[in-house]
Amino acid sequence: MRYEELQGVKIPKVGFGTWSIGGGGRADPRKDGSSLATLRSALELGYQHFDTAEAYANGHTEELLGRAIRDAQVDRSSLFLTSKVRAENLSSQGVIKACARSLRRLGTEYLDLYLIHWPNPGVPLEETFAGLNALAESGQVRHVGVSNFDRELLVRAQGASKKPLFTNQIPYSIADRSYVKNGVLDYCQSNDILVTAYSPLQQGYLRPGPELLQIAEKRSVTSHQVAIAWLCSQPRIITIPMSADPLHQRANLEAADIVLSVDEVAAIAA
Q: Alpha-carbon distance 209 to 223, whole Å?
């Protein structure tokens, strides 16, 4: 597994996203059995970074992730847990209370990373970061960051945060270059802000072009593995694919170790 190192932390190039585990916008207990099996499989395969949010299944995803970690008896210190606060909870006290609920659901005393899930123009960033700064100072949150922020908001967030921003979590894949075009990717890489690419496989709907297919055939891997390897080839980029299939989970994890040539990276990028 390849890693990115930032602010004294080594974080795997490939982590595990948890959207849809335990439900969608609200909890669906009927999915608990399959959801726990998905999480246990990921833990057994050696995933270390798990990304979740209070909005996922209205907090139930966090509960299931916490339960899976306890059931697997995994050492908490070996994991990097990320969660995110809803846009409607971005007042300073709202952030602090939301974090307390996430910690309780996950069954942990701290989060490795806590993100603003979506910007809320109705709440000043300075107020939100007053809460995030307090959480970081208390040790309940070790690193802070944002998600779905454009360049202007990133600059404002940097000014409001007492700690350097750890990441901006954005949609980024071979098929989605919107945050390349708007300058966010370059800004993050130039300012030592990690980019966490979500939906790297377009939620399983990525349609590979001829370049991907040729590279995959040449290397005897899948086109989806090449798509993940392309993200991992870029500096200051990590990604969080999700799959319920243990075979796909393993393939996604192993994709981090596929080292593409300069020519292959250029061909995909073009």
A: 9
Mean pLDDT of the chain: 96
Residue showing tokens 């590279």: 215
DSSP assignment letter at 161: -
Q: Please tell me the predicted confidence (pLDDT) of residue 206.
A: 79
Q: Quick check: is 3 catalytic?
A: no
Closest CA to 259 of 46, 4, 2, 77: 2
The answer for residues whose C-beta is within 8 angstroms of residue 205's C-beta and 6 or more apart is none
Does residue 249 lie in a domain region? Answer: no
- Which CATH number belongs to the domain containing residue 178 in this structure? 3.20.20.100
From the list 47, 56, 179, 198, the catalytic residue is: 56
What is the value of pTM for the model shown?
Answer: 0.97
CA contacts within 13 A on the Cβ side of 143: 20
Confirm whether 266 is domain-assigned: no
Integer angstrom CA distances of residue 11 from 8, 92, 186, 245 = 10, 28, 20, 23
